[in-house]
TrEMBL record, chain A:
InterPro entries: Bact_Sigma-Reg, KaiA/RbsU_helical_domain_sf, PPM-type-like_dom_sf, PPM-type_phosphatase-like_dom, PSer_Pase_RsbU_N
Superkingdom per UniProt: Bacteria
Domain PPM-type phosphatase, first and last residues per copy: 123-334
Gene name of this polypeptide: rsbU
Keyword Hydrolase set for record: yes
Organism encoding this protein: Halobacillus karajensis
Pfam families associated with the record: RsbU_N, SpoIIE
UniProt keyword list: Hydrolase
GO molecular-function terms, A-Z: phosphatase activity
Protein name per the record: Phosphoserine phosphatase RsbU
Transmembrane regions listed in the UniProt entry: none
Gene3D superfamilies in the cross-refs: KaiA/RbsU domain (1.10.1240.30), PPM-type phosphatase domain (3.60.40.10)
Automatic annotation (TrEMBL), chain B:
Name this polypeptide is given: Serine/threonine-protein kinase RsbT
Chain ranges of the Histidine kinase/HSP90-like ATPase domain: 34-133
Keyword Transferase: yes
Organism per entry: Halobacillus karajensis
Listed Pfam families: HATPase_c
Key words, A-Z: Kinase, Transferase
Upper taxonomic lineage: Bacteria, Bacillati, Bacillota, Bacilli, Bacillales
SUPFAM superfamilies the UniProt entry points to: ATPase domain of HSP90 chaperone/DNA topoisomerase II/histidine kinase (SSF55874)
CDD domains per the UniProt record, alphabetical: HATPase_RsbT-like
InterPro entries named in the record: HATPase_C_sf (IPR036890), HATPase_dom (IPR003594)
């Protein structure tokens, strides 16, 4: 209360000076006054009250109708004051939520973290960037010590917290399967059962699972409705879509996934992605496959990680640095 | 001054009557212009809630006089459907009026103390107090 | 982006005509309209995609839950006049194998 009284004197002087001089200086100070009032949580009706009191003191003979009109104005300001206070509280709540989400996002990062394998035979590049704080994309590398590298790339419907929660479930299920059998078709079949039992009817997950055997350089893979990746033939300098049929995880309880195998030659590349890459929009225009492949080709002299980073930079710029969907891109290239 | 005066709320017009009586009482107690306006807004909110959600009810006023302080108590009572989830209606941003009404959180901000008792199918009683400073 | 949903009911058949985009913003509205229609034994729900030029995975989720609901309640759902871009989404996700879909271009992509 005392600060407000102090401000009344201040306000009265400012008002008086302004009425006399019409000086910009006084208006600038009025601006400062209103900012200061906001910091002190002083609502608009109180400022009007200060105005009325100042007027009364400056003009003791102020006509009654002006007094009444000011009271009328004060009455109309009450709801604005309340709305402002509500806004303040909501803003604090929002900050609280934001910090909670960033804690959760960090937990998720730790939980879903995967180590990019360092193999002599294959060069691996991987990047996953969430559109919001939490990532609904997931990729994971598993090495079995016998020369096999398992690669999972998944995308949960939607973005943000619900997608991230779902992803954590996938991660735990995958961990529990590890060491049993690593056939991609078997892994997808098992995951499908878990997802079907545990998620909401409108939720689903797409996943591509591949197994690279560095002993004989074969790549075995299955897909559960995942965005098709690409295969690059070094000798022909051509890309081919890895288009494999398979139902998304979580729709039907029993699904058997087909498994495919490919022999990988020296310099060939396997490109895996999520639809955040192919669904990139530039204004109203969608970016087509050709463009992605063009960018990959343009940087193909770089190591796999370099290509991945450059593709990301390219699409980030196309989207005005505002990702609309989570972005995940993995490139594997046979070195020797 | 009457120990307690009430206004029955049946139609929208009664909200104005309740405001008028509440303002008169608070002026007599000695509340200034700003607080009178706040008390009137509180009465509007409480009376409108009765009118919109319960149909009928009443708003009562009581002048309070403690050892060294004076104030006003406003009690709004109805026998409407009751409020199912009180914490929800007390939450900012929930107001069914689309953010335009002050809602109950607004009433709580305008007053010094706030209490609400609601039983489903039986009704709601909201009691608020504002002290003179 | 907007989506308008027109439903006409005719002797056990509901015709749902969609115009606009099915995305995270419009999907809840579509879900609220579509799901109740799938809960009647023997009912046929036909969804017209003629004027849908964009759909994202949230929209796909709505049709997956509608499909599950038709199976549970003994109703059927048909998706007709689907455009290439939207059809591609159903094709990739393997849903063309388990849903009754008629695209404008036979064979899709």
């Amino acid at each position: 209360m005392s600060t407000l009284k102090l401000d009344l004197e201040n306000y009265k002087e400012l008002l008086q000076e302004y009425i006399k001089t019409k000086d910009e200086q006084a208006l600038y100070q009025a601006e400062q006054f209103s900012k200061h009032s906001m910091q002190q949580n002083i609502s608009p009706e109180e400022i009007i009250n200060v105005h009325i009191q100042s007027l009364q003191e400056i003009y003791p003979d102020m006509p009654e109708y002006i007094q009444s009109s000011m009271n009328f104005l004060l009455e109309t300001m009450i709801s604005y004051g309340l709305a402002y206070q509500e806004f303040q509280t909501l803003r604090e709540k929002q900050l609280e939520l934001k910090s909670e989400i960033s804690v959760a996002a960090n937990m998720q990062k730790t939980l879903l973290s995967t180590v990019k394998p360092d193999l002599s035979d294959i060069d691996v590049g991987a990047l996953s960037v969430p559109a919001k704080q939490m990532n609904g994309d997931y990729h994971h590398f598993v090495e079995d010590g016998k020369g096999n590298l398992g690669i999972a790339v998944a995308d949960v419907i939607g973005k943000g917290v619900p997608a991230a929660l779902c992803m954590s479930m996938i991660k735990y299920s995958m961990d529990s399967f590890s060491g049993i059998r690593t056939d991609p078709s078997v892994i997808l079949g098992n995951l499908n059962r878990v997802v079907e039992r545990n998620v909401d009817a409108s939720m689903f997950i797409t996943m591509f699972y591949g197994l690279y055997n560095s002993n004989d350089h074969t790549f075995t893979y299955s897909s559960a409705g995942h965005e098709p990746g690409f295969y690059y033939y070094k000798d022909r300098d051509e890309f081919e879509e890895i288009d494999v049929p398979g139902l998304v995880l979580g729709v039907s309880p029993e699904v058997s996934y087909k498994q495919y195998e490919k022999r990988v030659e020296k310099g060939d590349m396997i490109i895996l992605l999520t639809d955040g890459v192919t669904e990139c929009r530039q204004g109203d225009r969608f970016i087509d496959q050709e463009e992605i492949l063009h960018v990959i080709k343009q940087y193909s002299h770089l190591p796999a990680q370099g290509i991945v980073d450059q593709v990301y930079k390219h699409f980030e710029r196309l989207q005005d640095f505002q990702l609309r969907d989570d972005f995940t891109l993995i490139i594997l290239r046979r070195n020797v | 001054m009457d120990f307690q005066s009430c206004v029955n709320i049946k139609k929208e017009w009664d909200i104005v009557g309740a405001r008028q009586l509440g303002r008169d009482i608070s002026r007599k107690i000695g509340f200034g212009t700003v607080d009178q306006a706040r008390i009137a807004t509180t009465i509007s909110e409480l009376a409108r809630n009765i009118y919109l959600y319960a149909g009928t009810g009443k708003v009562c006023f009581e002048a309070l006089e403690d050892m060294n302080k004076k104030g006003i108590r406003i009690v709004a009572t109805d026998d409407g459907p009751g409020i199912q989830d009180i914490s929800q209606v007390m939450e900012d941003g929930f107001t069914t009026s689309g953010g335009l009404g002050a809602g109950l959180p607004g009433v709580k901000r305008l007053m010094d103390s706030f209490d609400i008792v609601s039983t489903e199918e039986e009704g709601t009683e909201i009691s608020v107090v504002k002290w003179l400073r | 982006m907007n989506l308008s949903i027109d439903v006409t009911n005719n002797e056990g058949v509901s015709n749902v005509v969609l115009t606009g985009e099915v995305d995270a913003f419009t999907a809840p509205k579509l879900k609220d309209t579509l799901l109740p229609l799938t809960k009647e034994q023997g009912h046929v729900v036909e969804v017209d995609f003629q004027d849908v030029n964009y759909m994202d995975s949230t929209g796909l989720g709505v049709f997956i839950s509608a499909l599950k609901s038709t199976k549970e309640h003994g109703a059927t759902m048909r998706l007709v006049h689907m455009q290439d871009r939207v059809y591609r989404l159903f094709k990739i996700t393997g849903l063309t194998e388990i849903m009754n879909i008629e695209s404008t271009v036979q064979g899709g992509m």
